[in-house]
Design a protein that fits this description.
The chain folds into two domains: 113 residues, D-amino Acid Aminotransferase, Chain A, domain 1 (2-Layer Sandwich); 150 residues, D-amino Acid Aminotransferase, subunit A, domain 2 (D-amino Acid Aminotransferase, Chain A, domain 2), CATH 3.20.10.10. The protein is globular and about 55 Å long. Strands 7, 8, 9, 10, 11, 12, 13, 14 and 15 form a nine-stranded mixed sheet that branches. The chain is of the alpha+beta class and 287 residues long. It is 26% helix and 29% strand. Strand 13 and strand 14 form a beta hairpin. The two termini are 19 Å apart. The N terminus is likely disordered. It is built from seven helices and 15 strands.
């Protein structure tokens, strides 16, 4: 679902400014070569939800990309300030760190001056059941970008565009070994004989914050779960299946390509959804 560009307030390198007043260098390597890291968070009553987990993942991405990490306290304050300024108390927050201005090429600046941006938008409203498709191209799980939340997101955008073209909500990709990996912006879980399964990080999927919270929640509920390599067919053959992401929480899959899942949402998925909302109570969207 496309988001319209509106007059909003953002945080740019330490200052709250109107979005239209941001002056970004045409030499910024986040723009020229996609050299940057980002996190998508949601606000819960104006507070960035699971901030420490997102911050740790940002730190991992920055280390992997060779980017300096901004000040943690300043960023946390910026996330709150932007949510408040735009009245997105339960909205989507986006934190982006780029390498800043550099050469027109793949070389880096000798003394980098990174760009840091925080923006917000309303939280998406997803349909009750997700329609997903399987794509024929593969995620390179041995790439140096595997597991990093990099701004080099063209592959993900192409995957989602193909899902939209086929009137679906999300696209799933396998890795170069043929194992199920992840969605364009989500992790995937399947339920088989009462066991909850999800691809391991070694298969190239992002270490999703919601993914980790769901695994912890399932273990607390006594649900048998495992991170296990799966074939793409595991989704259509599953008793139940769902997606997880920061904006989706636990999103049941109702259809994979042309196959409808009989139990959608299934009993284990519903149990996890109920436990999630009891543990993390918050409105889905701003009133």
């Amino acid at each position: 679902m496309a988001e319209g560009i509106t007059r909003t307030v953002v945080w740019h390198n330490g200052r709250l400014v109107r979005a239209e007043d941001v002056r970004l260098s045409p030499f910024d390597q986040g723009l020229t070569i996609g050299l940057g890291a980002f996190e998508t968070l949601v606000a819960a009553g104006g507070e960035p939800f699971a901030f420490s987990r997102h911050w740790n993942r940002l730190a991992h991405s920055c280390r992997g990309l060779g980017l300096p990490l901004p000040d943690r306290t300043a960023v946390a304050d910026a996330l709150r300030a932007v949510a408040a300024a735009n009245h997105h108390h339960y909205g989507r927050l986006r934190l982006t760190v780029t390498a800043g201005p550099g050469p027109l090429g793949s070389d880096r600046a000798a003394e980098p001056q990174p760009t840091c941006l925080v923006a917000s938008a309303p939280r998406p409203v997803w349909p009750p059941l997700a329609h997903v498709i399987l794509l024929p191209w593969a995620r390179h799980h041995h790439s140096p970008l595997a597991g990093l939340k990099s701004t080099s997101y063209a592959e993900n955008s192409l995957a989602l565009a193909e899902a939209r073209r086929r009137h679906a909500d999300e696209a799933l990709l396998a890795n170069t070994s043929g194992n199920l990996c992840e969605g364009s912006g989500s992790n995937v879980f399947v339920v088989r004989d009462g066991r909850l399964l999800t691809p391991p990080l070694a298969d190239g999927c992002l270490a999703g914050v919601t993914r980790a919270l769901v695994l912890e929640l399932a273990r607390d509920l006594g649900i048998e779960c495992a991170e296990s390599s799966l074939l793409p067919a595991a989704v259509s053959e599953a008793d139940e299946a769902f997606l997880t992401s920061t904006t989706r929480d636990i999103h049941p899959i109702g259809r994979i390509d042309d196959t409808r899942l009989a139990a959608a949402p299934g009993p284990l998925t519903r149990r996890l959804q109920q436990a999630w909302h009891e543990r993390f109570p918050a409105p889905i969207i701003d009133p």
